Amino acid sequence: MMSPESAGPITNYNYGLPSEWRKPLLRQSLDNKVYRVARKIKKVGQDDPRRIVHGLKVGLAITLASLLLFYIEPFNKLFHQGQNGIWAIMTIVLIFEFSVGATLGKGLNRMAATSLAAALGVGIHNIAFRSTRNNNAGQAVVIGFFVFTTGAICTFMRFIPALKPYDYGLMIFILTFSMVSVSSYGPEDFETVVRDRILSIIIGSVIAIVVCICICPVWNGEDLQNLIAKNIEKLGNFLEGFKGEYFHKGEYFPNSEDGQSLDNKPFLKGYKSVLTSKSSEETMANLARWEWQYRFGFKHPWKQYVKVGALTRECAYKIEALNSYFNFEFQAPYEFRSKIQGQCTQICSETGKALKELASAVKTMTKPTSVNIHIEKSKVASLKLKLLLDMILLEDYNLREITPPAAVALILIDVVPCIEKIANAVHELAYLSHFKTPDSIVSP
Amino acid sequence: MMSPESAGPITNYNYGLPSEWRKPLLRQSLDNKVYRVARKIKKVGQDDPRRIVHGLKVGLAITLASLLLFYIEPFNKLFHQGQNGIWAIMTIVLIFEFSVGATLGKGLNRMAATSLAAALGVGIHNIAFRSTRNNNAGQAVVIGFFVFTTGAICTFMRFIPALKPYDYGLMIFILTFSMVSVSSYGPEDFETVVRDRILSIIIGSVIAIVVCICICPVWNGEDLQNLIAKNIEKLGNFLEGFKGEYFHKGEYFPNSEDGQSLDNKPFLKGYKSVLTSKSSEETMANLARWEWQYRFGFKHPWKQYVKVGALTRECAYKIEALNSYFNFEFQAPYEFRSKIQGQCTQICSETGKALKELASAVKTMTKPTSVNIHIEKSKVASLKLKLLLDMILLEDYNLREITPPAAVALILIDVVPCIEKIANAVHELAYLSHFKTPDSIVSP
């Protein structure tokens, strides 16, 4: 009998095939893996082609800075020490972000914090050097004290919410201040080195900002606008789709959310992403504040976008509740549902239309015109539905069966003021950011 | 008549008070402002005292590196060029994060990426230098080509989801590679400088990681655990509070969420934060993966925490739907509500208890013991409630009035399987991460 050891390690076991047969199989599986990875990478680019452009932009900015500061006259003579140009490259890599807002925010923070911290660092250097001229230990204590205090205080300050936009600046402040104070114990031409590095960092920041803005810029403001508009649209899609799915059907509803019939309707799932979009909306709004010169002018009401987003999310929670009524094990007899169907369908379609118009208004920055009409119509339908619910006689029904459609009706009644709040917030946004009046009103 | 101009600028207008009276007022308002700002800053520290400790830790790490590399023998003789020590300080400021996971992740990324990129950069330098010995333009083209390609490809790679944990490493790779390739056109002792800088960066990383871990460490894993436990507990608090608020009351419910009586019950609002905690949970889980040596051992199932968190959020959406029934303008007569009150209260209190036990199980890493009993009890109550709903005769009721409590009952029935899913996920977590068996079982 063959012992397990004598059979050799399992990795050498050749499945009874000659080795020249195995190689292609192995290669094939490797090819498959490479192919799958390649497809995934391709998908990253396809999902948002701006990512590829961003890569090329960063490459371009670094190359530009390299050639400029090291190879091209007279820029390569700009600095007293040849190696200071690398600070420009470092700056570009650290501050070049996907969007203009983030790049501008980091760039301005970096330039301001570096200059300020370097000036202070040179001051501390002079104090330490003069007060303890030939005393090495004394210098170490003085500089150690300042570095520790600045590091500790500035790091703590990064937690203060009001200073969040200057977070990067605070970090750079600690970095530069410590580096300058400490390196003070070095060469004679200290102040020249510091000045050259600041100059280099400013050149790097300017190159990054210019490339970021001039070549296919990605505006955070625009992305935020599109996100808010898309989220509102998704709710509209749900409401318009819901009426068809819930009321026009027979007795059958799938028991599980994974059921075939609901999976084939993406508009019923789209709103799910609205539920969790809070943090990305807030990040975008914070970054958009750096984009002054974007088409909105200096003081664009980014907070109002966040408010519209929050109201949209409030409404999405109600829609999540509506969605849960697809999954109830018992459903009311069609005869009962058909009683409330008319007004419910009316609410769904009017609120759906209102939301879609609001979405297109936010997206195109045009004043919404017929939203109020749709909302008034949905209010009327909601009033009628209330009266209808009061009038239905309940003798013949089972409470458990009729509760889901009745609850759907109540939620729909509850959705109407929600939509009205969104509409009001969008109207306020239209006023604050001077949305244009649509052409259709002007044209005959 | 006095012209507006002759009255002087508005800022000089003294409100009819002599100037010595005004000064204290101004100072008082300034004092008030300073006081308010100081109070806000104090609150940042009070909310999480670990922030103050973090500030001190960063200060300590920078001071340590400064003193070590610039003032203390024999470390200050470590480098051939005196200024390379500043790279250690820069590294500390850039990688020292609040939590151990983030610091470790950044530190390891930084060390690996710097070493790799520097080696490649030196290689490129040699190629460029040898192939185009005295041709400046040729060198510029070769180096420009490599810098551009590396910058573009690595920047694009940062968008690939699978590479997210190495995002910082990719950035540092671009940075170091560009800096090394470009600065190759510089001093003779090129390779020594590169080696010294890598050494300096490694020293900086090690100091940051050691200080971060050894002094009051903040473990992401622990924070994630606490967050998940707290979220589960919040849902439990809501359910236990809900039964008292919804069923034990008379006819009156406040119409608005801002109403006085609901604002005084924080447990009814606590769950709101669960709705939007997705991104922080995922970030924490990603960072926690770097904390191998934390008390959980090498392969802790962080993904399972995210799963529990997601199920908790699913349940929170249902609770948001329950919460909306506080705000309905019509409420069922107490007589109707009292019919379903018993079983609804039972479900609320059993699921509440189950959730609270699950929360404490996650928090203390102890196997939950009586959760299944509570869930079984709530299932029985849910069955009884279904039968009850089937039996209630509806002749005397108005549909609009009875729908809210009936819908509440249906949602509560729907909450039970939700809680069961959470319990199963926590049981799986307990198995995967070897939760300890509670003492109460062992003790008599």
TrEMBL record, chains A, B:
TM ranges: 52-72, 84-105, 141-160, 166-186, 198-220
Recorded topology in the membrane: Multi-pass membrane protein
Name listed for the protein in its UniProt record: Aluminum-activated malate transporter 2-like
Family note: Belongs to the aromatic acid exporter (TC 2.A.85) family.
Short name of any one Pfam family annotated for the protein: ALMT
GO biological process: malate transport; monoatomic ion transmembrane transport
Compartments reported by the entry: Membrane
Protein keywords: Ion channel, Ion transport, Membrane, Transmembrane, Transmembrane helix, Transport
Taxonomy, superkingdom: Eukaryota
